[in-house]
Design brief:
By secondary structure, the chain is α/β, with parallel strands linked by helices. The chain has a single domain, classed as NAD(P)-binding Rossmann-like Domain (Rossmann fold, 3-Layer(aba) Sandwich). Helix content is about 40%, strand content about 15%. It contains eight helices and eight strands. Strands 3-2-1-4-5-6-7-8 form an eight-stranded mixed sheet, with helices on both faces. Helix 4 links the parallel strand 4 and strand 5. The longest helix is centred in the middle third of the chain and has 22 residues. The radius of gyration is 18 Å and the shape is globular. The N and C termini lie far apart (about 35 Å).
């Protein structure tokens, strides 16, 4: 039985990813900032997928990706468990500059630094009982910073000998609750811009494909859009800095 973790599991794309993973036979760990808000979706999945004769399991854990302490607690709960897929789906679009409890900017911490802290903390779970026919994978979506892309390549290089794949995916502009300004411009955005956005299902499709495909076109590392590799010129010296 394969197990996947999805951060931001109760968001627009997160819901599509969770359902598709369960459809593909994965047990699911939903990592959510506010479990009480995610509870209706959690119960919906349980009613739909959990049956007495089945082997699937769905679990929800609290995870604040703006807190290194929360990441440590999350990883400690999963100590000794085998994890086959880690999908970094959580994201934010803050309206103003905010700092974490550690004094760093929330957007950079959540999008980059804590992501890699989570991978490091969960690394032993990826290394247990890796089958020869497929590897553990870490999938990130919407790498908005060049730092995240380069760091992903560095992780891919570091862990490829362990059978762990690290890839990124660009979903494009997706119609999720994040796309709002909370001001008078929202109605105008809804009329002009929102019809041009992809649906959550379409935005999540590449991440789902990366998580469930038996083999990928690029053996380790790389970034994908619309289920195809994207080519970039890469300075390997930058990846290791």
């Amino acid at each position: 039985m394969k197990t996947a973790i999805v951060t931001g599991a109760d968001g627009g794309m997160g819901r599509e990813i969770c359902r598709s993973l369960l459809d593909n036979g994965y047990s699911l760990i939903m990592a959510c900032l506010l479990p009480e808000a995610a509870m209706p979706f959690f119960r919906e999945l349980q009613e739909q997928y959990i049956h007495p004769e089945g082997s699937l399991a769905i679990r929800m854990l609290q995870l604040d990706l703006a807190s290194f302490g929360s990441v440590r607690s999350f990883a400690s709960v999963l100590k000794g468990k085998t994890i086959n897929r880690l999908i970094h789906n959580a994201g934010i679009l803050p309206r103003s500059t905010r700092l974490t409890e550690d004094g760093a900017r929330v957007i950079f911490t959540l999008s980059c630094t804590v992501d890699f802290g989570l991978v490091f903390r969960l690394r032993p779970s990826f290394l247990t009982h890796i089958p020869k026919t497929w590897a553990g994978r870490v999938i990130r979506y919407s790498h908005t910073k060049q730092a995240l892309y380069y760091a992903s390549l560095s992780l891919a290089e570091r862990y490829k000998s362990k059978g762990i794949q690290v890839v990124t995916t660009d979903p494009g502009a997706v119609d999720t609750p994040l796309v709002k300004m909370n001001n008078a411009f929202d109605p105008l955005v809804n009329i002009i811009f929102r019809p041009l956005l992809s649906s959550p299902a379409r935005g999540a499709s590449t991440a789902i494909w990366l998580a469930t495909a038996r083999e990928l076109p690029l053996p380790y590392g790389g970034t994908y859009r619309k289920c195809k590799p994207r080519r970039f010129l890469v300075d390997k010296n930058v990846c290791h800095r």
